[in-house]
Backbone:
């Protein structure tokens, strides 16, 4: 996964992060950037310290698309915890992303 | 903490984004050619470039295949054979035309598909290993997916593009895109993406088959895929009629080219998909002038002395028990005796039963079966639809390569169904056999056993397809039933107009002249009686002649005797006459002598009158 970049945020914990997320994008498009920004924000707000994001650009590694059954981009895949969940779109609706990730929102 | 190292990835170039070539010129079109559906489908005028599917019959209907570099929609109900058609398109392309293909499936997995088509003799996994075919299973589960905000289907494009590039594909199958409609809720995005997908495939010059589920009512597809695939639409249909299912294919639309408009039956057999076009088969079979004997010498004689033409189709029709099967079996046996291969399709009797029954008329089929020259295929007509029967026959003929085929009876097989459907099926069978130069004998069962009426109407539809038509009839007269045969028609040869009696015996089949007594045709024992009578009359006449001759001889003898007697009489009379004459001559001579002597004496005694007076 040379083309993917990971972003670990659980600095203080030695254990692997609880949420392993993968964001599939296809090139640097407005939707991709929006999706990444939204994901970043949501994770920081609700999953601080327990997530790990891997970004896969399918234009560079198209062979990876079949593995997670990627069809639409951007697609966010929750690899862990099981079961695998998918959220497609630019993740602009925070509520639905949280539902999709099965995450209890942190009270503001 | 938000270092955003990923930007490195995101910022990269968009690589093989499919959107670049949006305005590239599509493959040349030849829209102006709107030829009517004529029998010459392969026109010399330039038509749309086409890609051959390799599917039997389909290339003929479409006049050369599917539009090259364009998508074709194949719509139909569940189980109508869409996937099979698509698979065969790819497999044939990969194996016969050197065009690798990508099969992107949305409904079943690659392993499932491979298992399903193995029965057709296609090994997708092997082809995939050889990089001739790429399989990609796109699984989309709605309840696993949450949608939030904007997205596009670039992932699908990338997968497809990747698969195409990995094998250099020229053909693509998407089976079936409609799963996307079920999997994604935002149909607005989906539709615009589909439009983009078709555009993208056209720009890349991919010949594609898109399958789609038949919609409600008149809609071609449930989600209106025909809206995007404007070039060629093929509709498949499976319908049940008389409890038998038949499949139909129709080219609904084919822009810019002439195509067959009809519904064509098709089959999915052991060798794949096979469309059976009627009109596309041009009547251009090779004809043979070679003749092959019927197996009955007298029948050959009736057919110009030589029998049937090779490659012709023969109908032997008659009411039950007129000896049709025997005639067919004889024909088969004769072919085997010449060392040719023969195929017997039996739809009434099992093969063992036929072998046994034919033995009773001196025809030993068993021997040829053992020698491998004869195959008997027995099955129930109702076992499958007549289309399926047809494909079974095709397969059997292809596998066995016979020169002679008998179908017994063709009526049960085909004519039990709706006539309008059956005739084309039979026509296709005949066409197929003619093309292969196989002489075919069809046994037809007529319903009416009436000897005097015109040939049964049920045969008339079929008979026009036949080159030779022999009619067998029962004649009931004089307390018995006998069989007669005559040649109803026989194209291209002098044939007898005579009715012959058809005799089945231990030694086989023979034809005998019938007797015309008064206004009746005499057969059977009436004929035998007539023969005996004629023989007796002939004997009698012979005897009479002899007697007359004898009489004449004796009469002649009598006359001759009479002649002899008369002649003897005449001779006797002649002699008598001769004697009398001689006597008279003698007397005359004597008298003369006397007179002379007298006168001499007188001269001596002149003066003595006395003496003279004494002599008064």
Residues:
């Amino acid at each position: 996964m040379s083309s993917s970049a990971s972003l670990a945020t659980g600095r203080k914990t030695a254990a692997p992060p609880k949420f392993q997320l993968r964001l599939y994008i296809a090139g640097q498009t407005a939707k991709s950037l929006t999706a990444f920004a939204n994901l970043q924000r949501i994770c920081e707000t609700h999953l601080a310290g327990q997530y790990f994001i891997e970004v896969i650009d399918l234009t560079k590694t198209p062979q990876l698309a079949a593995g997670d059954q990627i069809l639409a981009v951007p697609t966010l895949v929750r690899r862990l915890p099981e079961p695998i969940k998918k959220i497609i779109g630019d993740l602009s609706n925070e509520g639905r992303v949280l539902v999709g990730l099965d995450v209890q929102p942190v009270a503001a | 903490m938000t270092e955003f190292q990923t930007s490195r990835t995101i910022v990269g170039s968009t690589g093989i984004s499919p959107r670049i070539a949006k305005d590239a010129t599509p493959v040349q079109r030849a829209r102006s050619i709107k030829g009517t559906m004529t029998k010459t489908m392969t026109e010399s005028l330039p038509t749309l470039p086409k890609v051959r599917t390799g599917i039997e019959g389909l290339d003929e209907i479409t006049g050369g295949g599917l539009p090259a570099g364009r998508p074709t929609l194949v719509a139909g109900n569940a189980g109508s054979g869409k996937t099979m058609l698509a698979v065969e398109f790819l497999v044939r392309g990969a194996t016969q035309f050197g065009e690798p293909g990508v099969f992107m499936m949305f409904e079943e997995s690659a392993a499932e598909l491979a298992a399903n088509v193995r029965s057709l003799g296609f090994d997708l996994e092997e082809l995939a290993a050889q990089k001739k075919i790429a399989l990609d299973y796109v699984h989309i589960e709605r309840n696993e997916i949450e949608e939030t905000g904007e997205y596009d289907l670039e992932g699908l494009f990338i997968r497809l593009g990747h698969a195409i590039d990995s094998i250099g594909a020229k053909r693509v199958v998407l089976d079936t895109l409609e799963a996307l409609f079920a999997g994604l809720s935002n149909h607005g995005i989906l539709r615009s993406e589909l439009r983009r997908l078709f555009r993208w495939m056209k720009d890349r010059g991919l010949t594609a088959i898109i399958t789609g589920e038949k919609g409600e009512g008149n809609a071609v597809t449930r989600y209106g895929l025909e809206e995007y695939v404007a070039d060629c639409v093929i509709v498949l249909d499976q319908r049940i009629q008389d409890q038998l299912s038949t499949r139909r294919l129709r080219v609904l639309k084919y822009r810019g080219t002439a195509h067959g408009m009809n519904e064509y039956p098709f089959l999915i057999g052991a060798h794949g998909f096979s469309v059976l076009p009627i009109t596309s088969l041009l009547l251009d079979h090779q004809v043979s002038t070679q003749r092959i004997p019927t197996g009955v010498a007298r029948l050959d004689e009736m057919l110009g002395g030589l029998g049937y033409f090779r490659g012709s189709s023969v109908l032997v029709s008659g009411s039950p028990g007129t000896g049709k099967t025997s005639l067919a079996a004889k024909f088969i046996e004769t072919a085997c005796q010449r060392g040719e291969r023969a195929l017997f399709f039996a739809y009434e009797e099992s093969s063992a039963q036929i072998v046994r029954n034919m033995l009773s008329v001196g025809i030993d089929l068993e021997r040829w079966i053992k020698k491998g020259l004869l195959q008997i295929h027995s099955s129930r007509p109702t076992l499958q639809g007549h289309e399926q029967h047809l494909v079974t026959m095709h397969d059997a003929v292809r596998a066995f390569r016979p020169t002679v085929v008998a179908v017994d009876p063709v009526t049960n097989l085909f004519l039990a169904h709706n006539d309008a459907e059956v005739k084309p099926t039979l026509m296709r069978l005949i066409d197929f056999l003619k093309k292969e130069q196989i002489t075919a004998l069809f046994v037809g069962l007529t319903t009416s056993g009436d000897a005097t009426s015109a040939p049964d109407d049920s045969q008339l539809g079929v008979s026009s397809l036949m080159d030779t038509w022999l009619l067998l009839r029962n004649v009931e007269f004089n307390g018995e039933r006998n069989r007669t045969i005559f040649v109803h028609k026989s194209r291209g040869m002098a044939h007898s107009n005579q009715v012959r009696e058809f005799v089945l015996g231990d030694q086989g089949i023979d034809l005998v002249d019938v007797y015309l007594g008064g206004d009746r045709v005499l057969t059977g024992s009436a004929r035998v009686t007539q023969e005996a009578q004629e023989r007796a009359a002939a004997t009698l006449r012979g005897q009479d002649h002899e007697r007359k001759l004898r009489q004449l001889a004796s009469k002649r003898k009598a006359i001759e005797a009479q002649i002899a007697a008369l002649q003897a009489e005449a001779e006797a009379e002649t002699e008598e006459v001769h004697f009398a004459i001689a006597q008279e001559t003698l007397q005359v001579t004597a008298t003369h002598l006397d007179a002379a002597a007298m006168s001499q004496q007188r001269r001596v005694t002149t003066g003595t009158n006395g003496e003279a007076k004494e002599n008064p």
About this structure: The helical segments of chain A are 30-46, 94-101.
